[in-house]
UniProtKB/TrEMBL annotation:
Protein family per UniProt: Belongs to the thiolase-like superfamily. Chalcone/stilbene synthases family.
Catalytic-site annotation from UniProt: C170 (acyl-thioester intermediate)
Domain annotation Chalcone/stilbene synthase N-terminal: ranges: 13-231
One example GO MF annotation: acyltransferase activity, transferring groups other than amino-acyl groups
Name of this chain's protein: Chalcone synthase
Record bears the keyword Acyltransferase: yes
GO BP of this protein: pollen wall assembly; polyketide biosynthetic process
Pfam families listed in its UniProt record: Chal_sti_synt_C (PF02797), Chal_sti_synt_N (PF00195)
Alphabetical list of CDD domains matching this protein: CHS_like
Species: Oryza meridionalis
Top-level division of the source organism's lineage: Eukaryota
Keywords in alphabetical order: Acyltransferase, Transferase
């Protein structure tokens, strides 16, 4: 039985187990499959791949959506060769869930590994220094799941503390970062690897009016972020401090965004109301987030913005509602243009793009000190993180 000495040690550890500083993004890596599809060619590619050329009205609609999407190209793992090997993927009368889950079981962790290796290389410490792993994907329907496979591929320590988040959709990256923040701030010295890996193959289907927008916007990608508090002075470089985090569900919107496993893979629905629902709720959500850090009258144009680019209309609506200067959502628009909506992985690409833009900025004084990260997913759920640029803070202190 543990005695009084054990109790004293446990009690004293409790006092010192929290970190002193906020959780901080220390490194970012991204990866995509090799196969690139230009958005201008996508309609022909998709209707050809699914042998649906005869659906001319739907094809015209897909063309209209692609032209208005703000997307130039996407990376998509699924190709004609995979369909030749597994024709059930485009036959809705034949079950294909098993085939898809088999492919995902290899490809999802593999893509995550590629992003994670880049993040770990940037971080500069050995992979065995990672204490926690949070993996988010909408493609996982199997255990042991992608988190364990990623841990093995990277050679993480056997005691790494793993969590898998499933079907959080486009808010998966935001949710995983929030959990990483909690872990890093409550476990002194913790270094959390957040990995999101999304492949549309699990929800690929033949053209259908209700899903045509999703097929016109979604792409494949993986993002990895290393999070830890109190960066060590010798070599860890803080990129973004995560100051406060919250999750808000918009009441009565459960019908608007959703995913469900079926015998033909993951079925999804996207209501046409999504951009309006976000527009109507974003202001209050942001006010609540900034009030929680003592800012009751934030000027939205004084911030830097990391917004999940769910679709061009969502970004337009946020711009419009908050009267943002045209360049405020530039990082989100660029990621949308170059990759499409990669669901939960996208937010890592946006953070990566923001820091690249920041590095190019010559005048450090011009860089906003405060920022905000927003991600949207089924619910409709909004994940919000108030961010701070550690470099601007450093300038003020000097
Ligand atoms: C899955 C997750 O967890 C979270 C997510 O991120 S989900 C993805 C969220 N993204 C969205 O909801 C898409 C947001 N929408 C958009 O970006 C834009 O509406 C768009 C690029 C799709 C179209 O651009 P637009 O400026 O609205 O053009 P608009 O002419 O009004 O629409 C083009 C066509 O798309 C249709 N459309 C738009 N949204 C639709 C939807 N959700 N479902 C079905 N059709 C839709 C319109 O009805 C229109 O059809 P017709 O041409 O036949 O009239």
């Amino acid at each position: 039985m543990p005695g009084a000495t054990t109790a004293t040690i446990v009690d004293s550890r409790r006092c010192t187990q929290h970190s002193e500083g906020p959780a901080t993004v220390l490194a970012i890596g991204t990866a995509n499959p090799e196969n690139i599809v230009l958005q201008d060619d996508f309609t022909d590619y998709y209707f050809g791949l699914t042998k649906s050329e005869h659906l001319t009205e739907l094809k015209d609609k897909m063309n209209r959506i692609c032209h208005k999407s703000g997307i130039e190209k996407r990376y998509i793992h699924l190709n004609a060769e995979i369909i030749r090997a597994h024709p059930e993927i485009i036959d809705k009368h034949v079950p294909s869930l098993e085939t898809r889950v088999d492919i995902m079981a290899t490809e999802v962790p593999k893509l995550a590994e590629s992003a994670a290796r880049k993040a770990i290389a940037e971080w500069g410490r050995p992979a065995t220094d990672i204490t926690h792993l949070i993996f988010s994907t909408y493609s996982g329907c199997r255990a042991p799941s992608a988190d364990l496979q990623l841990a093995s591929l990277l050679g993480l320590r056997p005691s790494v503390s793993r969590t898998i988040l499933s079907l959080h959709g486009c808010s998966g990256g935001g949710r995983a970062l929030q959990l990483a923040k909690e872990i890093a701030e409550n476990n002194r010295g913790a270094r959390v690897l957040v990995a999101c890996s999304e492949l549309t193959l699990i929800c690929f289907s033949t053209p259908d009016e209700s899903k045509i927008v999703g097929h016109g916007l979604f792409g494949d990608g993986a993002g990895a972020v290393i999070v830890g508090a109190n960066p060590s002075a010798d070599g860890e470089h803080p990129l973004f401090e995560m100051v406060a985090a919250s999750q808000t569900m918009i009441p009565g919107t459960e019908h608007a965004l959703g995913m469900q496993a079926t015998s033909s893979g993951i079925d999804f629905h996207l209501s046409i109301q999504v951009p309006t629902l976000i527009k109507d709720n974003i202001h209050q959500c942001l006010l609540d987030a900034f009030r929680s850090v003592g800012n009751t009258d934030p000027n939205w144009n004084d911030l830097f913005w990391a917004v999940h680019p769910g679709g061009r209309a969502i970004l337009d609506n946020i711009d419009d509602k908050l009267q943002l200067q045209p360049w405020k959502l530039a990082a989100s628009r660029q990621v949308l243009s170059e990759y499409g909506n990669m669901s939960g992985a996208t937010i890592a690409f946006v953070l990566d793009e923001l820091r690249r833009r920041r590095e190019k900025e010559e005048d450090m004084q011009q860089q906003p000190e405060w920022g905000v990260l927003l991600a949207f997913g089924p619910g409709v759920t909004i994940e919000t993180i108030v961010l701070r640029n550690p470099l601007s803070r450093g300038l003020k202190e000097n």
